[in-house]
């Protein structure tokens, strides 16, 4: 039945090919049999690149902590063995190497006679971040490589946050994410060789952060994120989560795959803090801590994480 549906039903293909969600179908051998335009758009993989391949070779998903959905944890496995639909949030690995947050639903496909013949998976992005094309008014405000706010704009926003904090007496969280090893990579392969790492990291970070959070460029290999929350637990766990997701992102270069290594420093701004003091609190020489320690009630509000 599954083969007949996929090979002979023009109506089926017409209905699902252009739906604004990702859809793919796997058979009992866990091979991809169908991959629609929505799946192409979300993952970057074209149908002819994935149809016929094993699911595990294409859909590499993890949770927010970077734990892979594999083996018995994979929702498709549960649906194949228990015939139960599954709904989960996950981060798919895009063809370009960054992580994309999605909500995925699995549905069993019944053959004639009631036996299960495969699984249909529907998925869509949880946070549809759209990269804006800058017009004249945005000249110099977006970084040319990453297409996120430049250091100049980031610094201006930080100053505004500090002024607003003095008026409202409500603090905010600040994260600095630094990519590791790019100096050596740049020296070995040339100045432009690190651009894919910066772009991939920026996309993963932007897709991973809530829409009300701000992300901008800072140093040569650094990003700053501003969180409206002044909770040390929220700030610290967000830093840990970002490091985990970056460590599960990767860059392809001349057929080789390079994982991204990063560290995140974090702090919470409070009334009376100026910009220089706030940035000094983010230095790696500051008292080290982990997000788990902060969540457990560590007295210090600043720390450093490594992914």
Properties at a glance:
single chain, 307 residues, alpha+beta, Beta-Lactamase, Alpha-Beta Plaits, 2 domains, 6-stranded antiparallel β-sheet, 5-stranded antiparallel β-sheet, 13 strands, elongated
Give a description of the structure.
This protein is an alpha+beta fold. The chain has 2 domains: 2-125, 2-Layer Sandwich (Beta-Lactamase); 136-306, Reverse transcriptase/Diguanylate cyclase domain (Alpha-Beta Plaits). Helix content is 34%, strand content 26%. It is built from 12 helices and 13 strands. It has helices at residues 2-8, 10-17, 37-43, 47-50, 55-58, 75-82, 151-168, 182-189, 195-208, 232-247, 275-280, 291-295, and strands spanning 22-27, 32-35, 61-62, 86-93, 99-110, 116-125, 172-179, 214-217, 222-227, 250-253, 256-259, 262-269, 303-306. The strands form 3 sheets. It has a 6-stranded antiparallel sheet. The chain has a 5-stranded antiparallel sheet with strand order 8-9-7-12-13, with helices on both faces. Strand 5 (99-110) and strand 6 form a beta hairpin. The longest helix has 18 residues, at 151-168. The relative contact order is 0.11.
How much β-strand is present in the residues? 25-35%
Low-confidence stretches: 128-139, 284-301
Strand order of the largest sheet: 2-1-6-5-4-3
Highest CATH level, the class of the largest domain: Alpha Beta
SSE string, helix = H, strand = E?
A: HHEEHHHEHEEEHEHHEEHEEEHHE
Number of distinct helices: 12
The CATH topology assignment of the largest domain is Alpha-Beta Plaits
Overall tally of structural domains: 2
Main β-sheet description = 6 strands, antiparallel
Overall shape:
elongated
**Topology, number of strands:** 13
Q: For the residues shown, what is the average pLDDT?
A: 79
Could you say what the CATH architecture of the largest domain is?
A: 2-Layer Sandwich
């Amino acid at each position: 039945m599954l083969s007949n549906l996929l090979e002979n039903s023009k109506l089926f293909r017409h209905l699902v090919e252009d739906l604004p969600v990702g859809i793919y179908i796997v058979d009992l051998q866990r091979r991809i049999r169908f991959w629609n335009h929505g799946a192409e758009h979300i993952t970057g993989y074209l149908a002819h690149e994935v149809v016929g391949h094993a699911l595990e070779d294409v859909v590499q998903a993890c949770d927010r902590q970077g734990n892979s959905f594999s083996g018995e944890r994979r929702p498709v496995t549960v649906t194949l063995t228990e015939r139960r639909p599954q709904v989960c949030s996950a981060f798919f690995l895009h063809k370009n190497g960054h992580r994309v947050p999605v909500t995925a639903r699995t549905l069993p496909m019944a053959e004639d006679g009631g036996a299960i013949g495969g699984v249909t998976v529907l998925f869509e992005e949880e946070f549809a971040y759209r990269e804006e094309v800058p017009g004249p008014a945005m000249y110099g405000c977006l970084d040319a490589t990453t297409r996120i706010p430049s250091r100049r704009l980031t610094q201006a926003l930080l100053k505004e946050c500090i002024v607003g904090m003095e008026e409202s007496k409500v603090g905010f969280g600040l994260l600095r994410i630094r990519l590791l090893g790019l100096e050596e990579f740049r020296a070995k392969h040339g100045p432009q060789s690190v651009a894919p790492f910066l772009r991939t990291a920026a996309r993963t970070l932007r897709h991973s952060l809530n829409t009300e959070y701000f992300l901008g460029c800072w140093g040569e290999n650094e990003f700053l994120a501003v969180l409206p929350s002044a909770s040390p637990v929220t700030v610290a766990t967000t830093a840990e989560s970002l490091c985990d997701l970056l460590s599960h992102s990767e860059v392809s270069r001349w057929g080789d795959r390079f994982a991204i290594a990063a560290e995140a420093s974090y702090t919470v701004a409070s009334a009376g803090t100026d910009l220089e003091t706030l940035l000094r609190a983010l230095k790696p020489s500051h008292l080290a801590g982990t997000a788990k320690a902060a969540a457990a009630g560590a007295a210090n509000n600043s720390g450093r994480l490594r992914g």
